[in-house]
Amino acid sequence: MKISILTATYNRANLLDKLYTSIIINNNNCEEFETEWLIMDDGSADNTKRIVEEYVKEGIIDVKYFHQENQGKMKAINKLVKEATGDLIIECDSDDYFTENAFNIILKSIRECRDIGNVYALVFLKYDQDGKNMGNDFFEDNYESTMFDLYFKEGITGEKALVFNANVRKQFEYEVEDGEKFVTEARMQHKMDLQYVVRCFNKPIMICEYQKEGYSKNINKLFLENPCGYYNYFKEIFDQDMHGVTAKKRLYVYKHYILFATLSNQKHVIRNVKGIINKIAVLLLYIPGKIATKLRIRDNK
What is the extent of the structural domain holding 276? Predict the structure, then answer.
């Protein structure tokens, strides 16, 4: 069985060694997996290319280097998915790295699943560098759900590490609106949820070391620069089965739908909402939400 690890990187040459080392350790600890590491240099101005070329020369693991002019993480990953040749695909940011037994955990989990034909991803825990869970645990090991149900109905929080079934993952891509560079990964995952499921395991396979300039640390800037993608993400949530979605999460969806409709100057905002309850809620919240958004933009400026 083969694992394809996909990394989009931009001016992160100083971080790649830790990820590289973690892949080597796992590759040595789990001989049943063949590994390839595909790196997309998203227009870096540092020595990323030289560093990766050294990895290639060492020949310890199969490393493939690609380059594009800066187009953002999502387009970079879309291109790498097409190049991946593994049975499994893992997207690993440049400020992430694997736990020492990650590949063995993945292998054991696949065996427990037996058949992953209708499974688009195995979902594992993700820890920070202090060894703390970056969210909460699942209710049990090896249980079936969808990413939408996990976060909107079952109370799961925080980041998780997804190991994709390559046969399914290659059918989908990140949809990025014209002129934008980023959208939440959940937009694609929710579309996968409509046809497939995930299986969840309470074991950490990835460590995250957030950077000051990273996406998660600059979320407001990210929202302002990519409002159309986020608007479509929240609009598409209304295509999901909303029965069982908590009141808190419904309010979260309504507020953000209005926020991004305002930021992206959308028309027919009420008409685009599916479901009579959702329409009524957005209608009641639309004017105060739009005013609040404009006031926040003014204050931030």
Answer: 226-300
Instruction: Please indicate, yes or no, whether residues 190 and 263 belong to a single structural domain of this protein.
Output: no
Q: How far is residue 114's CA from residue 125's CA, in Å, rounded to a whole number?
A: 21
pLDDT, tens only, 154-192: 999 999 999 999 999 999 999 999 889 999 999 999 999
Of residues 261, 184, 173, the one with CA closest to residue 222:
184
Whether residues 52 and 109 share a domain: the answer is: yes
Residue 191 in domain: yes
Task: Evaluate if residue 214 carries a pLDDT over 60.
Answer: no
Which residue type is seen at 238?
F
Do the domain assignments include residue 221?
no
pLDDT tens sequence across 3-20: 999 999 999 999 999 999
pLDDT at 301 over 70: no
Residues 188 and 165 both lie in one domain: yes
Average pLDDT, the chain: 94
Residues 105 and 146 in one domain: yes
What pLDDT is recorded for position 245? 95
User: CA-to-CA distance for 128 and 249, rounded, in angstroms?
Assistant: 25
Res 217: pLDDT: 54
Residue 80: what residue type? L
71 and 175 both lie in a single domain: yes
127 assigned to some structural domain: yes
Helix axes 102-113, 16-29, angle to 10 degrees: 50
Write the DSSP string, 92-120: --TTEEE-TTHHHHHHHHHHHH---TTEE
Any domain includes 52: yes
Taking a C-beta distance cutoff of 8 angstroms, is the pair 189, 89 a contact?
no
